[in-house]
Design goal:
Blueprint (H helix, E strand, L loop, with lengths): L1 E3 L10 E3 L3 E6 L2 E6 L10 H20 L3 H10 L6 H10 L3 E8 L2 E7 L4 E9 L5 E6 L1 E2 L5 E5 L8 E8 L4 E7 L2
Helix pairs in contact: 1-3, 2-3
């Protein structure tokens, strides 16, 4: 790969030349690279899964970038050599992470992380038999990372299930057994 500077001829050319060389522009720079050919190996199962996830992420990005507010948000997160499209795909490809769930009296505190942002956190309280006693949306704390949900009762032997959802709709579920 080469970056072209101050070349009058190549500043006007884009595309593939002679089935060997590709010229394209990214962030105002002209880039020349060897043309890639198709792989001769059969894709592995992991590669097929990654391709499918990327197709889903691309479909999400296409829909999300129709919204001017989200497009501006993703563009604000883009670094050098990146754009809103790249950021939307990255967001759709990765799920949020629930790092810690702790209890402060009757409040469930969830420490979640996502490279972009977690859209919502739902907390469910289940009894020992698995019956949902209570469910509701947690509220984002002032620090922008912790989510708070006040429960009526934490039944002994029960379970607290936390579901974090990011902007693309990726869900992460984590459960904590009550003692």
């Amino acid at each position: 790969m080469a970056i072209v500077k101050d070349n009058v001829l190549l500043s006007l050319v884009r595309g593939t030349l002679g089935n060997q060389l590709t010229i394209y522009e990214r962030n105002g720079q002209i880039i020349m690279a060897k043309k890639r050919g198709p792989s001769t190996k059969k894709p592995t199962q992991k590669q097929l899964e990654a391709r499918y996830r990327m197709q889903v992420a691309a479909a999400y990005a296409k829909q999300m970038l129709k919204d001017p507010e989200l497009k501006a948000y993703y563009k604000s997160k883009a670094g050098v050599g990146q754009n809103a499209w790249n950021m939307a795909i990255k967001d759709a490809y990765n799920s949020p992470e629930l790092q810690d769930i702790r209890f402060e009296d009757t409040t469930v505190v969830v420490h979640g992380k996502d490279e972009f942002r977690i859209a919502e956190v739902e907390v469910q309280v289940l009894d020992a038999e698995g019956v949902v006693l209570e469910r509701g949306k947690a509220v984002l704390g002032r620090n922008g990372v912790d989510w708070y949900y006040r429960v009526a009762v934490l039944p002994p032997g029960g379970l607290v299930r936390v579901v974090a959802v990011d902007l693309p709709g990726n869900e992460t579920v984590r459960e904590v057994r009550l003692e």
